[in-house]
TadE-like domain-containing protein
Amino acid sequence: MSAADDAAAHGAPLTTRRRGTQPRAACSAAEARDSGAAVADFALVAGILTLVFACVLQLALVMHVRNTAIDCAGAGARYAALADLGTADGVARTRSLLARSLGSGYSRDVTGRYVSVHGVRTVEIRVTVPLPVLGLLGPPGVQTLTGHAVADSP
């Protein structure tokens, strides 16, 4: 006969307890001091975890801005490389693409020129954009990115 059956047979009340727990009176003083520590631990870890998440998100935004600006410069260079167009057309196209994709603050400093790369006449579109430090805000003129395309002969 089990202890619960024996207690029921003698009229003692049955008490149920979760496995592995002790009654409150059996807790030591050290365990009593630690009660509520999980809340403080969670608050500390949640703050650090939120900061790490925000940093990773900002790094992703920096990479997005950089890749988008390079793509816009390349598209402008390919547009300017067409036979009947020039670098001014490529600069205008790049400014339009940057303004639509990143905002007008990113399309201010765009230049175009013809360069020779290994003896081949090439269009170079150079874009200087801010480095986004807090959201899209940041110091201007930090990143200088270029796009190239082989120029068609006129």
